[in-house]
Amino acid sequence: MGCAGLRGALLAALCCLVSMPSLGHKPSDSYLSLAQPLGERGGRLSGQWDIALRDLDFAIGLDADGDGRITWGEVRARQADISAYALARLKIKADGIDCRIEAGAPMIDRHTDGAYSVLPLQVQCAGAPTQLTLDYRLFADIDSLHRGLLRLQAQGGTRAAVLGPQAATQSFELARPSRWAQFIDYGREGVWHIWIGFDHILFLLSLLLPAVLVWQGKRWRAADTFKSAFVDVLKIVTAFTVAHSITLSLATLGFVALPSRWVEAAIAASVLLAALNNLFPRIHGRRWMVAFGFGLIHGFGFANVLADLGLPAHALALALLGFNLGVEAGQLAIVAVFLPLAFALRRTALYQRGVFAGGSALIAAVSSLWLSERLFDFKVLPF
Q1: DSSP codes, 209-276
Q2: Residues 152 and 216 in one domain
Q3: Host domain of residue 213
Q4: 220-232 burial: b if 16+ Cβ within 10 Å, else e
């Protein structure tokens, strides 16, 4: 590949990242829990469906007086609409035959990222099923990144799955699931989370951008060898991995708990500081230490996903391992694409002024707005 081709490839990769909808806050999730009643072997399931009020407000308009707050009175007035909207977007089949789904009166509960409408569910299927198929279309027409986090308990086993536009219809054998299948599910969720967690991606990019450069004579210069750049990246990714694995494990196992709002603000601050350090270097020799320190904070952000799944105790170790490895696979995919292209272009003005300096400034601008929004609970950005 010639230099022009490399430039085009790198620009295309960067444009793809910049044009992604930058999720400054926790991505849109709902939480669907279904379980066979204890000792039940028939076709009845019960559970609940937690859906964020902010998402419902965007879809059907709950804020009747337009004051920016959704009250219990406004939710209660739209109970029938909430149930109808949700149930029209969920279908369950048992061995290929449609099940009847009924929803009780919505209640309100809080998750780490705000208030949710809670729909009690009763599912009645014909006979004792051996396979359940779920077709999940909630918000599919307005948010391509929305996910439904499923927890299904049946015949003594617990299954977790991620439902959404990319995998709207999924089938589950009700025999006790294999631990390998569960491990793959959690790993897939880890990959997906890092790829849509754009604050995590921007933090990683802030540390990767100077990896093909060295600080000499009070300026950034091109690194001499690919080996030195690779070793630098290896230290950064390893430090970040070790750090977030520590706090992810501590938080998921319940040893440490921090308010979600402050965790999200601290993550935004980490992105801002990492980007500013590229423009005004204060730490340039041991950036792996920066990756480790801020990785501890990012681990709490990763833990919110597993915590909200409400996994049973016996599944936590498997969830932690699979999710962690999924996050690392997602990170390594980004590194594998970015590093060779950046190294090839490291001596050009395109990279040093455009990608490195311009990219760092753009990341700093976006993260500063995220930080302000999360600290002072207001919204400026349209995403």
Answers
A1: GGGGEEEETTEEEE-S-HHHHHHHHHHHHHHHHHHHHHHHHHHHTTS----HHHHHHHHHHHHHHHHH
A2: no
A3: 3-25+197-376
A4: beebeeeeebbeb
The residue out of 156, 182, 208 marking a domain boundary is: 182
Could you tell me if 63 and 82 lie in one domain? Answer: yes
Taking the C-alpha atoms of residue 360 and residue 205, their distance in angstroms, rounded to an integer, is 9
**Longest Cα pair distance anywhere in the chain, in angstroms?**
76
pTM score? 0.70
191, part of any domain: no
Separation of alpha carbons 329 and 299, rounded Å: 16
In a domain, 176, yes or no: yes
> How many domains, the chain?
2
pLDDT along the chain (383 residues), means of 10: 47 40 56 82 87 92 88 92 96 94 91 86 89 94 86 78 84 76 78 78 93 91 94 93 90 82 89 94 86 92 70 71 88 93 96 96 94 78 51
